[in-house]
Amino acid sequence: MSVEQQQAADPVWGAPPAQPPTWSTRATLAAVGIAVVLAAGGGLVIYAATSGSHSSGPAPMSAGRSGWGGPDGIGPPGAGGPGDLPQTLHGEYVVPNDKGGFTIELTQTGTVTKATATSVTVRSDDGYNRAYTLDATTRKPHEPLQTGEQVTVKAIAANGDATATAVSPAH
What we know:
By secondary structure, the protein is of the alpha+beta class.
């Protein structure tokens, strides 16, 4: 290659960059078609994985404040897919938190035995009783809780106290 040919092949400082090659209409349509097929297939896989799930209790999920299905911490039955829990009367479990530590979470399904604006006490069918603090961040029904209502409570335990993160009608 001569010096003149080399200089013509090298870009000149300050010159506008060479136009990158563009896709033809045919190549663009092929890429869009492939993307549509992949998206439809993925949607079918998700539908198939979630449509056959039947559960009578809340289902775990991998993310979220409480570790339970749905944005409010209480999801529809089957929301967690494989590994759905049977209806739980009450339980305690430890999950990692966003600060590099761990949080103790509680769940209980039962009857409201006492309710105020700042607390609710629930009794499960096996006789387990627990009082929960309700604060401004607790997700709860718009109507005040009533004695005798069947509810599911999700809570965070700290220093022996339990603060409800969500209270919903039991299913």
